[in-house]
TrEMBL record:
Gene3D superfamilies found in the cross-reference section: ATPase, V1 complex, subunit F
Keyword Manganese among record annotations: no
Single GO MF annotation: proton-transporting ATPase activity, rotational mechanism
Keyword hit for Secreted: no
Name used for this protein in its record: Putative V-type ATPase, subunit F
Keywords annotated in UniProt: Ion transport, Transport
Any Pfam family matching the protein: ATP-synt_F
Family assignment from sequence similarity: Belongs to the V-ATPase F subunit family.
Length: 114
């Protein structure tokens, strides 16, 4: 499995239609449980999936809301540089206030507005 999605149940269903498995989350506790299952589910020493874990996830797609619920856990994971890579998308209710769009982030990084 290359991709996995964590977010609201409607988007989990939508991602399943295109072949991406996911976990529906409803609060910080369920988001953290799903996140830990993906990020810490593989045991390199044993070369096996830990009970409840998911093997082979290279890209983890999260809604912005789920990302907010994860807080420091998500930040620490991103800083570690390990797989899966994290991609945040708006949820079904749209972009959260104060979040930059991908285009805004690219413009800021490159310093060019076209």
């Amino acid at each position: 499995m290359d991709y996995f999605f964590i977010g609201d149940s409607e988007l989990v269903t939508a991602f399943r239609f295109i072949g991406i498995n996911g976990a529906a989350v409803f609060n910080a506790d369920t988001a953290r449980a799903a996140f830990l299952r993906i990020t810490r589910g593989w045991d390199d020493t044993a070369k096996a999936v830990l009970p409840g874990g998911v093997e082979g996830c290279r890209v983890l797609i999260l809604t912005e809301e789920a990302a907010d619920w994860l807080g420091n856990d998500l930040t620490e994971w991103q800083i570690s540089g390990k797989y899966p890579l994290i991609v945040e998308i708006p949820g079904t209710m749209g972009r959260l206030p104060g979040r930059k769009s991908l285009v805004d982030s690219i413009r800021e990084a490159v310093g060019v507005r076209v």
